[in-house]
Design a protein that fits this description.
The protein contains ten helices and six strands, in the order H-H-H-H-E-E-E-E-E-E-H-H-H-H-H-H. By secondary structure, it is α+β, with helices and mostly antiparallel strands. It folds into two domains: 234 residues, no CATH class; 108 residues, no CATH class. Strands 1-2-3-4-5-6 form a six-stranded antiparallel β-sheet. The radius of gyration is 27 Å and the shape is elongated. About 3% of the residues have low confidence.
């Protein structure tokens, strides 16, 4: 059995590594071509120019995210190639006569798949989020700040005596927020104060606001004064300007980045913390819950892929190449990738249970693999 494992594992690892390298090279080339249009552009603030070395570093930092996305497809294609080649050369028939029954073969491949599950989890949860954030900050350093839409990101927080609605216009490459507006409301929903700051930095459980203007409602009264009274007549407005102000909040840098960057590039723990923050403040977290469960289930798809590949070892190929079976593996992998993305959008639009929307592609392909295993392996 040791020799058997060494044969299958060695060839499968090598095949998956070659397929992964080929895919990464291809997608890195496409990313680099896409970045050529930005060469020569300058940051309007300090005039820093985006050069070829910056583009190369940017696409290199994107590689972990590409690896995470492509790993299940690479596992499928690489394993199909090895299984089909063993079947074509009759080596797998010899292995079967040597005691490799279908269930033992399935256990061998699932053990192999668990290695790639661990790899996908490590890359997707630790390496890819950090590298993707670094790539976005690098690009913002030379092409401008990170922002979304015309108004930036909106966040909400409830505290003991008030609730806050926060607007962050942009995030700079040095992790500094710009264009801050903090609207404070009392428990009855009446506005208490408005804080506006030119920029802010993250501190321990607080934001350090710079160049702050605070407008605070002091007491109700008629709107008769030309200055100092709220035009709506709800109360006296006291305005003051501070050079700096420390605002204590549970909104972390990861939460601001989540609002400004793509949620699928966040780590599982960061997503979970952000979901809890949204729910505790009465906000809709459906999109982020689906992405959280997708983060949980996506690495497990490597197990589904090796299960799909096993029936190819029981096909009878006496002559000809195995390119058709490899092509079938490519099409199955692409269909899984498309189904995975489609389920996320459909789950968000139709308000499906988040775990179901994330797990649906894996469940469908697991059922297909078990059906193929039962028909091609057990019944024959």
């Amino acid at each position: 059995m040791k020799t058997l494992r060494k044969l299958i594992y060695g060839e499968t690892f090598l095949s998956i590594a070659l397929v992964t390298f080929g895919f990464l090279t291809l997608f890195t080339f496409f990313d680099l071509v896409d970045e050529l249009q930005n060469l020569g552009r300058s940051n309007p603030v300090d005039g820093a120019t985006y050069q070829m070395r910056h583009a190369l570093l940017y696409v290199t930092l994107l590689a972990p995210s590409r690896l995470y996305e492509l790993l299940p497809i690479s596992v499928l294609i690489g394993t199909i190639f090895v299984m089909a080649r063993l079947a074509q050369s009759s080596e797998y028939t010899i292995l079967r006569t040597s005691g490799l029954d279908p269930w033992r073969a399935l256990r061998l491949l699932l053990t192999l798949g668990s290695v790639f599950v661990a790899l996908a989890f490590a890359v997707g949860d630790y390496v890819a989020p950090a590298a993707d954030k670094a790539s976005q900050l690098l690009k913002a350093r030379y092409l401008g700040r990170i922002t979304i839409g015309q108004t930036g990101a909106w966040l909400r927080e409830r505290q003991d005596t008030a609730s806050y609605v926060v607007n962050v216009r942009a995030l700079t490459p040095n992790n500094t927020m710009q264009g801050i507006e903090i609207h404070a409301f009392d428990p009855q929903g009446r506005m208490k104060a408005l804080m506006q700051a030119r920029e802010a930095r993250f501190a321990d459980e607080a934001w350090m606001l710079e160049d702050v203007q605070i407008s605070e409602v002091k007491a109700p009264g008629p709107a008769t004064s030309a200055s100092g009274l709220n035009p709506t007549g709800t109360g006296l407005m006291e305005r003051k300007t501070l050079q700096s102000f420390k605002w204590y909040t549970a909104i972390s840098g990861e939460m601001v980045a989540a609002a400004l960057l793509r949620p699928d590039r966040m780590g599982t723990i960061d997503l979970f913390s952000y979901i809890r923050h949204l729910k505790s403040n009465g906000q809709n977290a459906q999109r982020y819950e689906i992405e959280f469960w997708k983060k949980v289930f996506y690495p497990l798809s490597c197990l589904v892929m090796v299960m799909l590949a096993l029936p190819f070892a029981y096909l009878h190929m006496r002559s000809g190449g195995i390119s058709g079976y490899v092509f079938a593996g490519v099409m199955i992998g692409i269909s899984f990738f498309l189904m995975n993305n489609l389920a996320v959008y459909m789950g968000n639009l139709q308000q499906w249970q988040p775990w179901l929307a994330a797990a649906l592609p894996g469940l469908l392909y697991t059922s297909a693999s078990m059906a193929a295993f039962g028909w091609l392996v057990l019944r024959r």
